[in-house]
Design a protein that fits this description.
There is one protein chain. Helix content is 45%, strand content 10%. It is mostly helical and 584 residues long. Among the domains are: 39-104 and 115-149, no CATH class; 296-312 and 466-518 and 529-584, no CATH class; 330-422, Arc Repressor Mutant, subunit A, CATH 1.10.10.10. Helix 16 (346-355) packs across helix 18.
Length: 584
């Protein structure tokens, strides 16, 4: 047997100064959580992560477990694909199966009868995988990972071309695909020489042409808006696009703000390009769109308005409107009944006290005394005989000692009784008055008299209560209303592009996003950039803004610069400046 000798060792014996090896430090692992109904999340950043392995194992039960936990994790903004290796690859497996093979298993019988349990479970895995990708794409890091992944665009294209968005079984799947496409659209450039099978625009536009699903319309319009926001994709815009027709068709639905917002954003992207803005002026629905935009601003500004009351009432002088009138007293039925029970001469005494009062300068003819007495009691002479006229006159001195019966000499002698007069009753003059009418009358000034001889010449008095009620904005309207205002402003600029009234970028105007200003001299007389159709479009646009003036006059915006836009557009309808462009 050969003995092994280690020639590299200096010595086989322990050195004189021996150092004991350091003990190995063990990592303290966290204690397991033993709470009921709790399972840890398995978020280890390792290739053998249980969720990643379960998702790719192909066992339906394990896949369902992994997707159930991922659907809850993807709602957290800290969830990232790259922290779990292989996760994003596993999320593509089931959606790709559905858009290539799974959708074919839907038959006419599936409408009446439930599909097989295995197929329903696989379809659910595809939807849940898309749900995780769609929610996670809201994170910028995850959106980059999706954009750079080689399976993302093929999945989107196969979904848009293979699935019928009008079928109920495909609606949710296509909605998730459109949401994911919105994340990729800002970085996507569609070239004119792109093969039709690689162009996502035709199927999205076809969805807008055919579908009546609200969510599908909103997602499609938002996807196209983001895609066309890239100037490199302007070549794909058309003036007769079904997307433009859909945006105009759903614009009047003011009660559905998300839908209207999607329509406004697409309209803004379409007309932000000068060529399409000029073409839109020739659209038959352009005047109605202008009125709809103004009406939408009016509806939205109500949400940010406040009511203000300003009392400017001055000093007011009033007098009572009731006028009194005096008339001779007449016996009431109660007084007459009491007098009829008396005998003469007591009845005559009490009658005089009721009908007359002492008055130094008063006088009555003796004939009036007698006639009044006779007319009162003659109907009842059967019960008690009347006094003769002389006794009645004598009784006046008994009741009114200061009264005297005398004869006034003249051309005609007058037999009178001086010192008495008829008792007067004061009554309110009756007049027609509405129940809401005040009992006082306003005077023009403190020195005015009432009543006046000629009321028609009385100066007009001031109002008793002068309160000015008006509304004012306390903030700018919501974002959709501002988008509508920007669309109006761009169309206004396009309608007056060949006139001096067109707003141009200078020290007082910042221009419009997406519009390249023409730096040529506007006074050089050159008109080569405006064709006959452009001039016709300008004329139609100016007439349309004149018809929108009534709406714009009621717009009230908090920001003074934006309000100056509205005032400038409304003034066109008043002055009619340059309504018809100059002839060539």
């Amino acid at each position: 047997m050969t003995t092994f000798v280690n020639r590299n060792a200096a010595s086989y014996y322990r050195p004189q100064q021996y150092t004991a090896p350091q003990p190995v430090q063990t990592v303290q692992r966290p204690a397991p959580d033993i709470r009921d109904d709790y399972e840890r999340w398995y978020t280890e950043t390792a290739s053998n992560n249980r969720m990643s392995l379960s998702l790719r194992c192909g066992i339906l039960g394990e896949v369902a477990w992994a997707l159930d936990r991922l659907c809850r994790l993807c709602m957290n903004e800290q969830f990232m694909f790259r922290t779990i290796p292989g996760l994003i690859d596993g999320l593509f497996d089931w959606p790709e199966w559905y858009v290539t093979e799974g959708y074919k298993n839907w038959t006419e019988e599936s409408i009446l009868f439930s599909p097989s349990r295995e197929f329903a479970q696989k379809r659910r895995h595809a939807l849940e995988s898309l749900f995780v990708m769609r929610n996670s794409a809201l994170n910028e890091t995850n959106s980059w990972d999706l954009a750079l992944h080689t399976h993302t665009m093929p999945l989107i294209l196969n979904s848009l071309f293979n699935l019928d968005a009008n079928k109920d079984e495909n609606v949710e799947f296509v909605l998730y695909i459109l949401d994911i496409f919105q994340v990729l659209a800002p970085r996507m450039i569609i070239h004119t020489n792109l093969p039709p099978s690689q162009n996502p625009l035709p199927p999205i536009i076809n969805i807008l042409r055919m579908t009546t699903n609200r969510s599908m319309i909103i997602s499609s319009l938002m996807a196209l808006t983001i895609l066309f926001s890239n100037p490199s994709n302007t070549s794909q815009l058309t003036t007769d696009s079904p997307a433009l027709a859909a945006a105009i068709r759903y614009l009047p639905l003011f009660s559905d703000i998300p839908l209207v917002d999607a329509c406004l954003n697409y309209l803004y992207v379409q007309i932000s390009h000068p060529a399409f803005a000029r073409a839109f002026l020739l659209h038959p629905g352009m005047p109605s769109v202008l009125k709809l935009l103004a009406s939408f601003i009016l509806q939205e500004q109500v949400l940010v308005e406040e009511s203000v009351s300003l009392d400017v009432t001055g000093s007011v002088h009033t007098v009572a409107s009731t006028a009194t009138h005096t008339k001779d007293h007449e016996l009431t039925q109660e007084e007459l009944d009491k007098l009829l029970e008396l005998t003469e001469p007591q009845r005559c005494y009490d009658w005089m006290k009721c009908m007359f009062v002492a008055k130094t300068d008063g006088e009555m003819t003796q004939v009036d005394f007698w006639n009044l007495y006779k007319d009162t009691f003659n109907p009842y002479a059967e019960k008690f005989a009347l006094l003769v006229a002389s006794d009645v006159i004598k009784n006046v001195n008994h009741v009114f000692p200061q009264a005297q019966a005398m004869v006034l000499q003249g051309q005609v002698q007058r037999f009178i009784v001086r010192g008495v007069d008829r008792r007067k009753d004061a009554t309110i003059v009756e007049r027609c008055k509405h129940p809401s009418q005040s009992d006082t009358i306003t005077l023009p000034s403190s020195s005015s008299n009432y009543p006046v001889a000629d009321p028609t010449t009385r100066p007009i008095p001031p109002l008793r209560s002068t309160v000015i009620n008006y509304t004012r904005p306390k903030a700018d309207p919501p974002s959709p209303a501002l988008t509508a205002l920007l669309i109006l402003r761009i169309l206004y600029r396009t309608s007056f592009a060949s006139a001096d009234a067109a707003p141009r970028a200078d020290a007082g105007h910042f221009g419009f996003p997406g519009i390249v200003e023409d730096t040529s001299d506007p006074d050089d007389g050159s008109d080569t950039n405006f064709s006959g159709e452009d001039k016709e479009g300008e004329m139609r646009g100016r007439k349309a803004f004149v018809g929108t003036r009534k709406f714009l006059e009621n717009v009230n915006i908090y920001d003074p610069v934006l309000m100056s836009w509205v005032a400038e557009m409304a003034d066109v309808g008043i002055t009619g400046t340059n309504i018809i462009p100059p002839s060539p």
